[in-house]
Structures are given as structure tokens and as C-alpha cells.
Design brief:
The chain has 24 helices and no strands. The protein is mainly α and about 500 residues long. The protein has a single domain, classed as Up-down Bundle (Growth Hormone, Chain: A). The chain is globular and about 60 Å long. The N terminus and C terminus are likely disordered.
């Protein structure tokens, strides 16, 4: 990234001038958070509206899930451009342009006239939101320096705390008492505030003196490869499942494009869309695997849990949002502590604890019955929140601390691509499994377990099918639990030494 960091961070990482974050960096962090809140909020605010969207647009779960998956895929598609765009135009320009594009996509999404137009406009919205998180992360990472990465990640993680808490509650209220279109229109005032703050506080930066040419070949290989892989997953909801020839063909085509990109990146090196040589760094590679499964665990649960409360238990959108709040509160409690632990003792000492909490917090949902206590499920969600707070940002922090400063912007892009890809895979895969489970148990649900149809079941009918619905959700949660438990393998390989201890022997950063 071409923008100059504060003088303090240009010193050797072995001799930081201050342990804490200075006022200028904190203010800059809060400004960046204001923009990221908007994107993260919209990732979670839509989840409680899926049932309403399915009813209004007469669409089933296999189609409705693209409102989320399309947004996440758009995030992942545009993220690879972030490093190049920052080098070419400067972080401030990229940041403000992303806000404008996101707000435009929000206005169009709120004006959608059918499910197809909504998915298209959500993709546009994702193209704007995709660059917000990595651009903000790159700006703040350069400002804070590697020795304060854990504390800075805690600031960047604030949107991830507020999103799961405020998003479902705000979305539920808007869906029930206003109109679902306002879950998108609400971004207008937030976006205006974020744009004004960025104009005021984000420092002017300029692109590189000799910016690299955009990797067009990589752009034609990697994002389409992701899209084909996720689309292949989504087609498995109909007859034949993952054994359908068309499903296999889509998945194979996506895998081929991704493989071709890897070969292309190896030959092009640092000039490629993503430099796959970064994965030669053991810590970065390990953290990348972990963050992929964190994305599955986070976004998969944000799809399943609201649908369980609304479809199987007959709760309204606002009640479902409130019932989701304990997960965000748990993350809010854990994340600030996790940042300090990472700086002092290393991510390898906190992330495994987070995974255990995630698994334990998922078990009650895997064993869910038609009348499982909301208190039990709320406590389980709080545990899941603690686990997420101890897992996501510490893992991303560990991935960046062993890299040179020159590699940070592109590495940040890579990590954000991976977490969005994990979220896309988790959403599509669990939607497919849930659709098939509901269809197998309640064939009349039709449409792959259509959300819209299930939302119209009268209370007396729901009481009759509640055990079957609970079984369908429980089976799907078992799959989610298994995908979460896999995290323990890379987590045990993360560094068990604090960043500041490692910094004493580190060479001066490059850049």
C-alpha cells in the first residue's frame, strides 16, 4: 500500500515507541468502524427477513439463500481488487468510492420488484461492501504496526460485534413494523455519516509511483471459479443431490478455474490478483484454513438459527432477531480480551478455547426438539458468541503478524476473500442440506423446503409437523457442528508466542 504510515510505525518492530494505541490511531479506527458497521450490519440484517422475502416473492429456500450467497460472493469477487486499487488510487479514494457504491446498491435493493432483481442488486451492494473491510484493515494495520495488531484487530472487530447484535434486531423490527425494504434503505443515513467521517479524518493518500497493471487474467479465473463452485453447491438441493451430473459439472468447472488461477499466480508472483506464494508462510496458511471454517460456522449459523425460530417455532422476525442477540453479546465480551491475549501469548493459546466454546454452544441446536427451552438455546448462543470472539479476529491477527509490511494489503485481501468464501460455502451447503431434510420429512413443503411455504403454515398445522421440522434442523446443525470441530486442527498449529515477544528479533519492516 502506498500511503505512508505514521512516523511511529516506520521504526523497527523491535522498538515500538508506545505499547498502547495513540489517540490519532484510535480516532482513525473509529472512523473506519463507522463504514464497516454498514457492510457487516447488512450481512446479518437480511437473515431474519428471509421468510418474508420467500413469501412476498413466492420463492423457496434454494432460491432465497442467494440473497445472502450472492452478496457474499460479490464481497469475495471484489476483494482481490482491493490491493491493486489501493496501490493505484490510494486508500482514501478506494474507501470513499466503496461507500458510495454500497449505498447505491442498498437503494436499488430496497426498490427490487422481484427476487431476481433483488439478487442482482444485492450483488451490486456486495461489490461496494467488499472493499470496505480489507481497505479499512490495510489502512489501520499500516497505522498501528505489527506489535499492536491484536489491539487494532479488536477495534476492527467492533462491526462484527455490532452486526450480530443489532442487525437481526433492527432487521426484525423493520420487517414486522415498517417494511422489509427498509432493511436496505436504513443504509442511507449510515452511509452518509460514514462518508462525511471519511472525508474528515481518513488521511489523503496517493497511489504508488508505478502502480502495477491490473491482473485481468486472474480476474477472469478466480472470481468466476468461486461463483461456479457455490452455484454447483446450490444446485444439489434438487433430485440427485451432489451426485447429479450437472452439479458435478459446475463444481468441476469451478475447481478447474481456481486451479488455473493458482498456476497463473505462481508464474506471475506478486503481480497477480492474489499472490499464492503468501501461503508458503506456515502461519498465514494455517490461519487461512482456520478462517475459512470460521466463515462457515458464522454465516451458516446466521442462516439456520433465524429460520429455526421462525419456521419451526412460529416466531416473528423481531422475536427471532432478539433471540439471536446473545451470540453477538458473547462475542462482544470475548473479543477485547482475545486481542490482549493474542498480543501477549499468541493466537494458539486462545483460538482452541474459542473452538471448544463454539462446539459446545452448537450441541443444543443439534439436539433441538420441538419445545426446546429458549433459555437453553440463548445460553448456547452466548457460548457460541464467546467462541467466535476468541476465534475470528485472533486468527486473522496471527496470519498478518509474520508478514512484511509490504505484503499486508494483499494478505488482508486474501484473508477477507477466504472468510467470505467460507461464508458462501456455509450458506449454500447448509441451505441445501436443510432443504433436503425438510423435503424428505414434509414432502408437501415442496420447492426444496421453501421458506415462503413454511411461513404460511397455520399454528395448528405447525404443531403437527413441529417434530419433523426440529429433526430437519437438528440434522443440519450436526453438519454445522462437524464443520466447526474441524477448526481444531489448524488452531493447534497457530503461534503460541506473543507478537511483542517475536518482534524483538524481527527485522525492520519493509515499506
Amino acid at each position: 500500500m502506498a500511503e505512508s504510515p505514521p512516523a511511529e510505525t516506520t521504526r523497527s518492530s523491535g522498538a515500538p515507541r508506545a505499547e498502547g494505541l495513540d489517540r490519532q490511531v484510535i480516532v482513525l479506527g473509529l472512523v473506519i468502524v463507522a463504514g464497516n458497521v454498514m457492510a457487516i450490519l447488512d450481512t446479518t440484517i437480511v437473515n431474519v427477513a428471509l421468510q418474508t422475502l420467500g413469501r412476498d416473492f413466492d420463492a423457496g429456500l434454494s432460491t432465497i439463500q442467494w440473497v445472502i450467497t450472492g452478496y457474499l460472493l460479490a464481497l469475495g469477487t471484489v476483494i482481490p481488487l482491493t490491493g491493486w486499487a489501493i496501490d493505484r488510487f490510494g486508500g482514501r479514494t478506494v474507501w470513499m468510492t466503496s461507500i458510495v457504491l454500497f449505498v447505491l446498491g442498498s437503494v436499488l435493493s430496497g426498490s427490487a420488484w422481484n427476487i431476481e432483481s433483488l439478487i442482482v442488486f444485492r450483488v451490486l451492494q456486495g461489490l461496494g461492501g467488499g472493499m470496505l473491510m480489507p481497505t479499512g484493515m490495510a489502512i489501520l494495520t499500516m497505522a498501528a504496526g505489527p506489535h499492536r495488531m491484536g489491539r487494532m484487530m479488536s477495534i476492527i472487530g467492533v462491526p462484527m460485534l455490532l452486526g450480530p447484535v443489532l442487525g437481526p434486531v433492527l432487521g426484525g423490527w423493520l420487517v414486522e413494523d415498517v417494511d422489509w425494504r427498509w432493511i436496505f434503505f436504513v443504509n442511507l443515513p449510515v452511509g452518509a455519516l460514514a462518508l462525511a467521517l471519511a472525508w474528515w479524518k481518513v488521511p489523503h493518500g496517493h497511489g504508488g509511483d508505478r502502480p502495477q497493471a491490473l491482473d485481468l487474467r486472474g480476474l477472469l479465473l478466480l472470481p468466476p471459479g468461486f461463483v461456479l463452485l457455490i452455484y454447483g453447491l446450490s444446485t444439489a438441493s434438487s433430485g440427485g443431490g451432489f451426485g447429479r451430473p450437472s452439479t458435478i459439472a459446475w463444481l468441476a468447472a469451478g475447481a478447474v478455474l481456481v486451479a488455473l488461477f493458482v498456476l497463473h499466480s505462481l508464474s506471475r508472483g506478486g503481480r497477480s490478483l492474489i499472490d499464492v506464494r503468501l501461503f508458503a508462510d506456515r502461519t498465514f496458511a494455517t490461519a487461512s484454513v482456520a478462517i475459512f471454517f470460521v466463515g462457515i460456522a458464522l454465516m451458516g449459523s446466521m442462516l439456520l438459527i433465524p429460520l429455526y425460530y421462525q419456521t419451526a417455532r412460529g416466531e416473528g422476525a423481531l422475536a427471532a432477531g432478539l433471540l439471536l442477540a446473545p451470540q453477538g453479546l458473547g462475542a462482544a465480551c470475548a473479543m477485547p480480551v482475545a486481542g490482549v491475549v493474542v498480543d501477549r501469548f499468541g493466537a494458539g493459546r486462545i483460538v482452541p478455547v474459542g473452538i471448544v466454546l463454539l462446539v459446545v454452544g452448537t450441541i443444543p441446536f443439534a439436539l433441538v426438539e420441538a419445545d426446546t427451552s429458549y433459555w437453553l438455546l440463548g445460553g448456547a448462543l452466548f457460548l457460541r458468541g464467546l467462541g467466535l470472539g476468541c476465534t475470528m479476529m485472533p486468527t486473522m491477527s496471527a496470519a498478518l503478524t509474520t508478514l512484511t509490511r509490504a505484503a499486508v494489503s494483499r494478505a488482508s485481501s486474501s484473508l477477507n476473500i477466504i472468510v467470505q468464501l467460507g461464508g458462501s460455502v456455509g450458506t449454500a451447503l447448509l441451505a441445501v442440506i436443510l432443504s433436503r431434510e425438510i423435503s424428505d420429512r414434509i414432502p408437501r413443503a415442496g420447492g426444496g423446503g421453501g421458506v415462503g411455504g413454511m411461513g404460511e403454515i397455520p399454528d395448528q398445522v405447525r404443531a403437527q409437523v413441529a417434530p419433523q421440522l426440529a429433526d430437519a434442523f437438528g440434522t443440519t446443525f450436526w453438519v454445522s457442528l462437524a464443520l466447526t470441530a474441524v477448526l481444531i486442527v489448524p488452531a493447534l498449529m497457530l503461534p503460541r508466542q506473543g507478537v511483542k515477544a517475536e518482534a524483538k528479533d524481527a527485522p525492520p519492516p519493509i515499506g
